[in-house]
Amino acid sequence: MTSPYGNSSPTPNDSRSGENLEEFERLESTLPPPLRRSASSLLEALSLGGNTPVDSGSSTPIAQHENRFSSSWLNSRDSVPSSAHVPSHGAKAIPAHVLSDHRSTSPIPMPKPKFNSEILKPAMNTKQSSTGVLWVTERASEYGFDPQDADWANLGQGAPEHGDTVPGSFKRPTSIPITNIGKEYAPTAGIKELREAVANYYNDTYRQGKPSKYSYKNVCIVPGGRAGLTRIASIISDCYLSFFLPDYTAYAEMLSLFKNFSPIPVPLNESDNYEVHLEYVKRELDRGVSALLTSNPRNPTGRCMTRRQLAQLHDLCRQKCLLIMDEFYSHYYYDEGCNGSSISSAEFVEDVNRDPVLILNGLTKAFRLPGWRICWILGPEEYINALSSAGSFLDGGSNAPLQYTAVDFLEPVRVRNEMKALQQHFKMKRDYVVGRLSKMGFKFTPGPHGNIPNSTFYLWLNLSHLPGKLSNCLGFFHECLHEKVIIVPGFFFLINPQNLSKLEDVIWYHYVRISYGPEFEQIVKGMDGIERILERYNCLPYKRH
Asked: Whole-model pTM?
């Protein structure tokens, strides 16, 4: 029987099919246990019916050929220990003859995870697992990915292009002067000069005409966003902390490590593109929540709250709830003509020392310097003092020479010009990606409840209209690897600390996150790779030339 790709479909004994099955088993077995179980359940449902490509030589769904693996997996499924751990490192590289396969067949296998129970790991917490970006990078490395390999398109990494590639942007430093004082440990709250520069920038940009102003005492410099979140998690105690789903994948591990508060996930609705409605916040406050963590603009959906929504959120939380606002993408904002403007909670704080609001941002995203690990937290002095103390035992503080160099970056007029250049460039890349994917048959709707991102450099892509394996984020990821394209499966954005909540129904099996952060040439290669995948499945609305 002929496959839709022009080659003969293999028989059940075809060795290449066995290799494909073994390859997919290896891929699925590296997932964290909750996702591994959920992925298996979804693949089972997919195999028993649903959206499958049709063989061009007959009316028979391809899935009838592909589901030959299901019975053996189903028979052994109950014997698989659900709590077993599969290390995410050290997996064997994919055999070269499998990678050279022209992908003439693409089975929907029913994987049976493999576990090595003989390896002892004394004192190791084996429940820890890789975050989404780390996991996809590990898997891609098994397929030959090298960050220096120009043939790969890494659309999974949550980082912007960092070179002198953005028209109108200031030149990134190529050398750093180190004075004698720069050789010393920096204070765990950061050097005073940089703290003052951050406070001045926020006052000039967001607090014009307000009587209450930030000072250096309201700023804590931290070695990266994760370090900032970890410091915050260490100083809050005896409370319920709510957060919305989907959101930044690294929240999961951070929230699961600390036992001094109880994290409560709040799923948002797909129907309005996961907008944070204020009635959700009020409901959480009414049931005793006293801390709220959210990203704004949001990762992975690429949407940003309006100024009116932010003002109302602050009014709701001012008296009873700590707002933890992750604003790392606040300058990637495209709704006001790409003129360098941005949205921040700092605009809606009434009193900088009374309003319980902690704002995280830094050089990593807005200044396109992720490797510097220079970030900051703004908040009331008492919180900042506690965060400084936490840094003394958690991370030791940020790099001193880089802090001194960063002071000049934060001159307000310079920042505005830099953000204008950034917004115009990244909006161009967003429009290119949306345009290419629209031609491939993906649906995009504009407006406040649409799925076109108005901020960040992420696209939350719905796969549900695609045939068979491609409608599943793990299957789509698997095919992307064979085209040297990296994306992040949607189920990694289910943040379920300690797996205490039964949230399987809201896992985003049919979504992937695509980053248009990399340089334009990588984005073009990534779109070309996705186009080739859809062509193999006969689901392009046009013929490729």
From this structure: 0.83
